[in-house]
Amino acid sequence: TIRSVTARTVLDSRGNPTVEADVRLADGSHGRAAVPSGASTGAREAVELRDGDPARWHGKGVDRAVAHVTGEIAAAAVGRDADDQAGLDAALVALDGTADKSRLGANALLGVSLAAAKAAAASHRQPLYRHIGGADARLLPLPMMNIVNGGAHADNPLDFQEFMIAPVGAATFAEAVRMGSEVFHTLRRDLLAAGHSTGVGDEGGFAPALRTAEEALDFVTAAVERTGYRPGADIGLVMDPASSEFFHDGVYVYAGEGVRRTPTEHADYLAHLIDAYPVVSVEDPMAEDDLDGWRDLTARVGDRCQLTGDDVFCTNEQLLREGIRTGVGNSVLVKVNQIGTLTEALAAVATAHRAGWTVVMSHRSGETEDTTIADLAVATGCGQIKTGSLSRSDRTAKYNQLIRIEEELGSSARYAGGALIRRGDL
Ligand code: PGA
Ligand code: ZN
User: Which atom of ligand 1 is nearest to the CA of 39?
Assistant: First the structure.
């Protein structure tokens, strides 16, 4: 039984305020969760409540969200059974009463939803991944490590937001992390040697002043090879252009490269990159408002490349159902704060899995030391996680948690590798 619910303002990895919630049960068990925050958000995400007072935190304060947790939400949650996560989450959604969670704030609801799950896990003396996923939860995800940052996550001219490496050929999760770290450090040396900055962006990847996706993919592919791995067979490449960010009035405007591409030209360009490089997965290849483009690209390359919807679905089960029905991609990115409760995020995963779609558990560009998503990746057995680079503790905290989970599972642990990615040549 939930005895108390509290919250406070803490800092996220960009130095912005965010909500951290604590849930205590009558038996003394405790759960704590800090809420992440995006920069390239989808238009249909649940609302992150910010105070908008320019005199404090440049308008980004979360005092109202914190007050909602300690006030209305605590009043509704205290006395509820923490084992009934679905019941608690339904009560939170009903209490908010809006379709987009704009009254109490998805940041207020999510902090309590996740903290309650952690308190319940602690009460049963279970790790979170087992409490949520049961005894079968033993699949460690393929990590998609973001080693070059652009777009809204860096101030360089790169139009595409993320260039990632995925160690599909590793034998274990721990080995995948080692491989990723080795490539990260090779890339650092290569960038330095070429006279580029090795400062990092919001997700810990390098943010060199490159102008085209090809330049970034060339650097990454060369770093994989120079480290001694085979691009494709050992390490696949993954991109998140975050295309909604540069789709304006029906045209993809590549400001850094200095070109404009129609939806067809943009899709042609992506198809070219997918064929020219060992790209195994592309997230948000097309903009959230370009569903025709999404369907065309899926029909063209969906048989040989995972196409993951982030902005287009916003972890919203209804939007996802519609996308599955109409052929918008073949995979969904899951960000718990896009929807605002654990139960709804798990529903999106279940819907994707029922349709034979793949699922990528994901961080936000604004993160904290909270590692809940690492456990959620194992709990759902989704087999893929994207949680940033091999630097910055907000990113490495999740990899470190997965290393611990793999160790705890011992010989029963399985590493997903590239098995869930659909490219025929893997
Ligand atoms: P965001 O970016 O957290 O800034 O939205 C991550 C992504 O687009 O996947
Ligand atoms: Zn994205």
Answer: 4
CB of 219 closer than 8 Å to CB of 190: yes
Cα–ligand 2 centroid distance for 316 (angstroms):
15
Distance 117 CA to ligand 2 centre (A): 26
Q: Rounded distance, CA 277 to CA 270, Å?
A: 11
C-alpha span between 309 and 295 (Å, rounded): 12
pLDDT, one tens digit per residue, over 256-315 is 999 999 999 999 999 999 999 999 999 999 999 999 999 999 999 999 999 999 999 999
Among 114, 110, 221, CA closest to 164: 221
SS3 264: helix
**What are 25-39's pLDDT values in tens digits?**
999 999 999 999 999
Give the pLDDT of residue 424.
45
Q: Is 391 annotated as a binding residue?
A: no
Ligand 2 centre distance from Cα of residue 202 (Å): 13
203 among known catalytic residues: yes
ipTM, 2 dp? 0.98
What is the crossing angle of helices 106-123 and 342-354, to 10°? Answer: 80
Q: At what angle do helices 85-96 and 342-354 cross, to 10 degrees?
A: 110
Q: How far is CA 33 from the centre of its chain?
A: 16
Report the percent of the chain where pLDDT is more than 90. 98
Q: Residue 364: CB within 6 Å of ligand 1?
A: yes
Are residues 128 and 371 in contact, defined by beta-carbon separation less than 8 angstroms?
no
Q: Which helix (H) or strand (E) holds 110?
A: helix 106-123
Residue 82 identity: A
SS3 6: strand
Q: Which of these, 280, 373, 360, 357, lies nearest to 324 by C-alpha position?
A: 357
Comparing C-alpha atoms, which of 140, 317, 345, 151 is closest to residue 239? 151
Closest alpha carbon to 372 in 8, 127, 81: 127
Cα-trace Rg, the chain: 21
Per residue in 44-86, pLDDT (tens digit) is 999 999 999 999 999 999 999 999 999 999 999 999 999 999 9
pLDDT of residue 426: 34
Alpha-carbon distance values, 419 to 103, 338, 383 (Å): 42, 27, 9
310: part of which helix (H) or strand (E)?
none
- The question of whether 408 is a catalytic residue gets the answer no
